[in-house]
Design goal:
Length: 551
């Protein structure tokens, strides 16, 4: 419930702090005194858009702060959903800066307006004669029936399974779309994979193949080069090795004369040994250089295949081709795996559909069972509110789809007078009738579900006398289950309140301000008397006011 309201620099209010209590509270005041300003401030706490024109002093920021005791509201799950820290005493604050920027806070944590709007739905409900559109909303009508039927847990179970059902259907749709794409790609992917697998890439060494091809393709040139090199090295008269032996023999004769001469001799000996080894290796290599046209053709074909695959896939190495081969293999496996996932999801969806059918049937049965009792309660209240011939009819139709609250589609039909046919509520009920019907529904709901704080803004417009008295009794009865405020001009209703607040304006030479105070017993009598007789309060009005307060 709303326990405290603090307003600074908002419209005609300079500074206001007032505490509220449980039960039925009345707010009265002359037209233009500032009741709409209070509602505007509360609207900011509900997440409504801020207006820079709301600042009384354009150079200072506006602050509206409300303190709500939510301990008995069971809102922990909602706070978690909204990513808010749960506090039994929750403080909502809105600030409008002179720059026009608006900020919102819940328990000092900044929030966006969407969060504030969703949270405030469970905290405060402002209802006026002109805000009866929800009565014509089918979802709201079902909520009313569900409250009376006690369907909360059943509905939560249904909605939990519906969430899974929708999630799985969405996943199934995505998988089927992916399957269509894969089917389109699969033939080509299979062709590419088979082509790569046929190349047996894992056994290919591109560097070795290219080297072997160069060797095989240049056999004659290699043989000629190796043969001439051998001849130059080992020819009997002109070979390099023969000449080197003669040099070594000559230097060997001088080696004993000097250390330096000995080192020269050793170096020549080393060169002779190395050249002899090179000559032997050249001879061995020459024997292995054989023209093999079949092997040359084979290596050439392997390389051409490799180059063609690299060009097709726009890569330059065998490793990259192997990676593409693996990717293609995974893609083809995915298509197979996808079928299994689709089958599993379809089975799960069938299972959930069965659960949803059973739960929606139970919901529908419970609703139909609750409707007669709901109709009776509403009609009993409406009779007290001056509508003795009102009649309701709930028509149930089965939806082909799973809706957010089951498979029921409800039409609330209404007839205000005897002999008139039923029609849709929004089409046949007048504004005054809609207000009384809404009050009746809220009164019934108060007994079955934990409604938030409700503010009736002049819902009694157009009624008087006994009907007004009954309205006051109904709102007073509602306050046994919830916190109720009524902004009213009717003394019959004002007298029913447990607490009475007055809105009034004060003016000086410079400015006009709106204020709100709680009336004591004496000032309350005078306020109700003034509502009865006007500014000139008579003794009979005072007596009548006392009588109203003691009923």
């Amino acid at each position: 419930m709303l326990t405290l309201l603090n307003i600074k620099n908002f419209a005609l209010i300079e500074s206001l702090e007032i505490n509220f209590s449980a039960g039925f509270s009345i707010i009265t005041g002359e037209t233009g005194a500032g009741k709409s300003i209070l509602l505007g401030a509360l609207g900011l706490l509900q997440g409504k858009r801020a207006d820079l024109n709301s600042l009384k002093n354009k150079e200072q920021k506006c602050i509206v702060e409300g303190c709500f005791n939510v301990e008995s509201y069971n809102l922990q799950e909602l706070y978690s959903h909204l990513d808010l820290d749960y506090e039994p005493l929750t403080i909502i604050r809105r600030e409008i800066l002179p720059s026009g920027k608006s900020r919102a806070f819940v328990n000092d944590s900044p929030v966006n307006l969407n969060v504030l709007q969703e949270l405030s739905e469970s905290l405060i409900d402002i209802h006026s004669q002109h805000q009866t559109a929800e009565l014509s909303d089918e979802n709201y009508q079902i909520q009313v029936v569900d409250a009376v039927a006690g369907n909360r847990q059943l509905l939560e179970n249904y909605q939990s399974n519906l969430k899974k059902y929708k999630k799985n259907n969405s996943a199934l749709k995505s998988l089927k779309e992916r399957r269509i794409e894969l089917i389109k790609e699969q033939d080509y992917s299979n062709y590419l994979l088979e082509e790569l697998q046929a190349a047996d890439l894992i056994k290919l060494n591109q560097t070795e193949l290219e080297e072997e091809y160069e060797k095989l393709n240049n056999v004659e040139f290699v043989r000629e080069s190796f043969g001439q090199s051998l001849n130059l090295l080992i020819a009997e008269q002109l070979g390099v090795i023969v000449g080197l032996k003669e040099v070594r023999n000559l230097l060997q004769k001088t080696a004993s004369f000097s250390k330096n001469y000995s080192e020269l001799n050793n170096r020549v000996s080393s060169v002779e040994i190395e050249l002899s080894d090179i000559a032997a290796e050249l001879e061995n290599q020459l024997e292995g250089v054989i023209y093999d046209p079949e092997q040359l053709s084979y290596v050439y074909e392997r390389l051409q295949l490799l180059y063609a695959l690299q060009k097709k896939h726009q890569v330059s190495t065998v490793d990259e081709l192997l990676e593409i081969e693996e990717q293609l293999s995974e893609k083809i496996f995915l298509a197979t795996d996808l079928e299994q996932k689709i089958e599993a999801l379809e089975e799960e969806i069938k299972r959930l559909e069965k659960i949803l059918r059973e739960l929606s049937k139970k919901l529908s049965d419970m609703r139909k069972k609750a409707v007669p009792g709901l109709q009776k309660q509403l009609l009993d209240i409406l009779k007290e509110l001056g509508m003795p011939n009102a009649e309701f009819k709930f028509e149930f139709n089965l939806s082909a789809n799973y809706l957010s609250n089951g498979t029921d589609e409800i039409q609330l039909l209404f007839s205000a007078n005897k002999g008139t046919s039923y029609g849709l509520l929004k089409k046949v009920a007048s504004g005054g009738e809609m207000s009384r019907i809404m009050l009746a529904i809220k009164a019934v709901l108060a007994r079955y579900s934990h409604l938030p704080t409700i503010i009736f803004d002049e819902i009694d417009t157009g009624v008087s006398g006994e009907v007004a008295d009954k309205m006051g009794e109904i709102m007073s009865d509602m306050s046994n289950y919830m916190q109720v405020f009524s902004i009213t001009h009717l003394p019959q209703i004002a007298a029913k309140g447990k607490h009475h607040y007055k809105v009034f304006k004060e003016s000086d030479e410079d400015t006009t301000t709106s204020k709100l105070v709680e009336l004591n017993a004496e000032t309350r009598v005078r306020e109700i008397a003034q509502m009865l007789s006007g500014k000139d309060i008579t003794d009979s009005a005072l007596q009548h006011a006392k009588e109203l307060l003691t009923r």
